[in-house]
């Protein structure tokens, strides 16, 4: 794919619906029949829509699971000026907050995870087995806790209240400004320059804007958003999407017909393909996260101390986080993740060799999983190749490549200067007190001499 080009949406089908020849070619690449047999079992379990044991992961080969799920349904995160009927006050809890529906979605996803990995993960919560990390947003933190409530209701001696089958389970996070791995909006001057000088000037981007100029002008007029660019289609789609989901309490503006809404959705999907469509941006958006995941797989395969007992690691994130990860694997299908959409990256050991498979779960109303194919690696990716792929785009120094190194050094020097000045002030104050003490003592002595 050329830089800046629009990616065509790929239809992600259940594994069984895909052409058999691809699978047969992959089978021929393994050294023995047993390895092929295990691969068939792994993918067979992924494609089923049935409940029960057939839906479970293959416990014979499974060694580690890394999930990456989007937060559940939330209130609108942004509003446009002309939509006077839908204001901050009409969204209970404020803007961008998890809704009761979102809590339920995550709770159901947690139950799905528990059922899929039953027999691999313990029935009872074990701090040694799982680790959950979230971005520093209310909606992702709450989503993680709701998800864990579905995964691990208290059992036996964990029950502390018979009327409340829930237990607190830790969710770890770091402030956004220190989280370039999971927060895709962390300020990065280099990325801003790349958008301005490369993405927005690319032939593919300008062509899409040109072809949709009349519709963008129409939206700008109706929403009150001046000079609406393609890259900001989210600011129109987000409030309308939330109003559509919550149509029992919110009403879309009259000008938003079904045809208009469909075109807004399509244009929004296209706009997202430009978020991370060049390697220079992917390098600074998502590459760190991809390598973190691959390195955990490597540690597990090598039985390093950190990963000896760990079986499950989860990220509670945003749609842009998931898209950035998929773009770094060259596996994004052009469809923006829905609320509570989850990806499961499983590490399997087959005859002493390790492989990674990526599965997509896009609805809490269904148990169906889809296999995500990594173009350079296939549907079952050798761990060594997976790890090398994660290294290929990882920046050695994120702050430096983002143009933040000089700023950080300036801040450090400023802090040092402030410290020096503070120290001098304290020293001056101490010297002044000492001088004042000697001065007062000298005056008292002189006064005593005069009195004699």
TrEMBL record:
Q: Catalysed reaction(s)?
A: a phosphate monoester + H2O = an alcohol + phosphate
**Entry keyword annotation includes Cytoplasm:** no
Report keywords, A-Z. Disulfide bond, Glycoprotein, Hydrolase, Membrane, Signal, Transmembrane, Transmembrane helix
Q: What class of enzyme is it?
A: hydrolase
* Stretches that traverse the bilayer: 417-440
| GO molecular-function term, one example from the UniProt record | acid phosphatase activity
Name the Enzyme Commission number(s) assigned to this protein: 3.1.3.2
Do you know which CDD domains this protein is assigned to? HP_HAP_like
Cross-referenced PANTHER family: ACID PHOSPHATASE-RELATED, PROSTATIC ACID PHOSPHATASE
Q: Which family does it belong to?
A: Belongs to the histidine acid phosphatase family.
Q: What is the recorded name of this protein? A: acid phosphatase
Its source organism is Romanomermis culicivorax (Nematode worm)
